[in-house]
Write a structure and sequence with these properties.
The protein has helices at residues 7-14, 21-32, 42-56, 58-71, 79-87, 93-105, 128-134; strands at 2-5, 37-41, 73-75, 109-111, 125-126. The chain is an alpha/beta fold and 139 residues long. α1 (7-14) crosses α2.
Amino acid sequence: MIILFDTNVILDVLFDRKPFAEPASQLLSLVERGEVSGIICATTVTTIHYLSSKILGKNKSQNQIKDLITLFEIASVNRTVIEEALKSKFSDFEDSVIYHAAHHAGAEAIVTRDPKGFKKSKLPIFNSIELLKILQVIE
């Protein structure tokens, strides 16, 4: 299964945000083991670098980015994605960009902590726990 990981799911793991970090970490482990194909949006990379460099410093932030791009494929944000996001009925532009990037990258679903932001999605939307249950990793 090809899953696009929303920025908030990655941040939950990187910043150990309780109680969300544990199920999100389990999903990242599935990507590491090759049981799930993971994608992150190009905007996720820049957002994570910006936030983590303020908290962890530039060097640690860059190391996190290197780890992420080793683990995940990157969904492009190009003119088409932006134009489609602008035309869409999504209430949040950032979520719209992530959705359209996921769609163009061939994602089969999106995992997020903000499913309300993806109400207009044609892709299945899951939170981390729901996706783990679907993948039958937890009961």
